[in-house]
Amino acid sequence: MKKADFRASILIAIKEEFSSLFRLSLYRNAIYLMLNSAMYALTGFFFWIVAARLYPPEVIGLASSAIAAIGLLSLLSTAGLDYGLLRFLPTAGGDAQEIFIPQAFLTSLTRSSASQAVQLIIQ
After folding, report:
1. Most distant CA pair in the chain, distance
2. What whole-number distance in Å separates Cα of residue 101 and Cα of residue 108?
3. Could you read off the pLDDT of 63-103 as tens digits, one per residue?
4. 5, 30, 58, 110: which could form a disulfide with 77 (CB 3.0–4.6 Å)?
5. Tell me, what DSSP letter sits at residue 78?
């Protein structure tokens, strides 16, 4: 077998393997989540590069610490409600809407309240 044929057969096998992964929703959603995280990280990285060029170090330090504080409070303010949804929503059956809407509202309310509190403290 020629070297080019061997490479082509390997590429075809890899392509078939990836296409089979996209047929399963679990793998497809996991790949989308990983791509989302990678894009979020890259966007943030380039944002801070541009911000570091445009603003003095004191402003960058203050902004990064404020964003970190808001992120921490946002994480703490969920109080496990997001994982509660993951645990109980699949078994809720027809009551899913009655569970999901109040919990989503409560999560949004606590996160926005925590973010507003940090902004008021900073100002």
Report:
1. 71
2. 11
3. 998 888 888 877 777 777 777 777 777 777 777 777 777 87
4. 110
5. T
